[in-house]
Amino acid sequence: MSVAPQTVAPPGVDVASARPRIRPLRWVAGVVLLVLLAQFAWFLVTNPRFEWPVVGRYLFDPNVLRGLGMSLLLTVIVMLLGSVFGVLLAAGRLSGFRPVAWACGFYVTVFRSIPPLLQLIFWFNLGYLLPRIPLGVPFGPTFVSWPTNSVISSLTAAVIGLTLHEAAYMAEIVRAGILAVDGGQRDAARAMGFTARQSFVKVVLPQAMRVIVPPAGSEFISLLKGTSLVSVIAMADLLYSVQVIYNRTYEVVPLLIVACAWYLVVVTALSLGQRRLERHFGKGQR
Prior knowledge:
Elements: H1 24-46, H2 52-58, H3 62-93, H4 98-113, H5 116-124, H6 126-129, E1 132-136, E2 142-147, H7 148-151, H8 154-179, H9 183-191, H10 196-226, H11 238-249, H12 252-281
Antiparallel strand pairs: 1-2
Helix pairs in contact: 2-12, 3-4, 3-8, 3-11, 4-8, 5-8, 8-10, 9-10, 10-12, 11-12
């Protein structure tokens, strides 16, 4: 067995008082970054076309805040539904029953392949394929039906389209987290007399959360930004709200900056929360 060579300080050299090496390339890179940052800040401050007074006037506009609230509400609803369906899909893919595993795998493949914007437009125009939504016996009589266009509103289409898309990604995140737990943990839990449910809840899930939380948090943030796609189906989210205003005032750039500012604030807050969750579930792993 080879032993790594040990570095011995020369005689008369005190390692504790040694100074770090000077790295000139790092200093050059730092100076370049500072110059670029200063130039960008100067561009923001001196360019009158940003119209910062207009940005300040509309930053807390009631219509903008309502759009922000709708974006947050849609994000929470879709993430909750997508997580529930994603867990079920992950359990199906890990199931030993082949037809269920194949069906769940087919679902994940299809809805991960279709862009979410295309799904939103499709569900919003569902009335073209299905003028009425029936409720009854399959291949039998229909008890009651509703006009599709009255059921599939902008909000309904957004929830359906984004949830189906999100469930496919959450299924893979949850499945990866469960597979990351060593199989010996389950065997040890069974040896201690735990039931299958107890071993999953008390042994497998806490360890899987360490793997699930980082990508799930990133997926939540991506979903928040992805809600801007619902503006194409005339849903009053944050982007649609600023679009309505600048279509009336023709102040396009300042209103887009307002939307960017709110997305930046919310995403930063969510990122801080994600880090706290990662530290909580990562205890004992560092």
